[in-house]
Amino acid sequence: MRGSTRRKALPALKKPVSxxxxxxxxxxxxxxxxxxxxxxxxxHDDRVHFEFLILEAAQAGLSWLTVLKKRxxxxxxxxxxxxxxxxTFGETEVKRMLKDPGIIRNELKVRSAIANAKPFIxxxxxxxTFDRYLWDFVAGKPVQNRVRSMKDLVPNSPLSDAVxxxxxxxxxxxVGTTVIYSHLQAVGIVDxxxxxxxxxxxxxxxxxx
Length: 209
Fold this sequence. Notes:
- With 209 residues, the protein is mainly alpha-helical.
- It contains twelve helices and two strands, in the order H-H-H-H-H-H-H-H-H-E-H-H-E-H.
- It has one domain: Orthogonal Bundle (Endonuclease III, domain 1), CATH 1.10.340.30.
- Helix 2 packs across helix 11 (177-186) and helix 10 (158-169) packs across helix 11.
- The protein starts with 28 loop residues before the first helix and ends in an 8-residue tail after the last helix.
């Protein structure tokens, strides 16, 4: 009927879904995206391993958010984290990097990142891949820690101590146990997602290469 005052019932509004993340991952969109898609996911790509060796060392003394904001700068300067190309870098590349605010301009960190390319390649020659070398420390099985809150997180472990010690013997620089523990977390060898975190309950596994 024309002019009817009868109104159709409006659909109920859906309540926004609240995602429970680890305590550190909600402060910035870059942190949340990294946490949701990368942190703790088992990775088996040598370029990813080389990337995180560089980025985790760059973080030393700084926040991870600072590193994430400069990640593209590192990708650009380090040839997409191609270790074969980085192994050929010299003073020209060092000077270029130290002039660019798009990365963390710490000369020791920059030179160490470049220097690590050669022992990285040496490990690949010995083990087939750097990935196989690193995962052999845990017999291919991720370490799943019980983390109920930030109080349960640790900066290092006997595992990171052992990896750090071995890498140093092989000529790697800036690979202290804390840096290596962060690397192990980043590539999923150590799972430190909180028990209440949605990623702990829906772990994504990437195929081994």
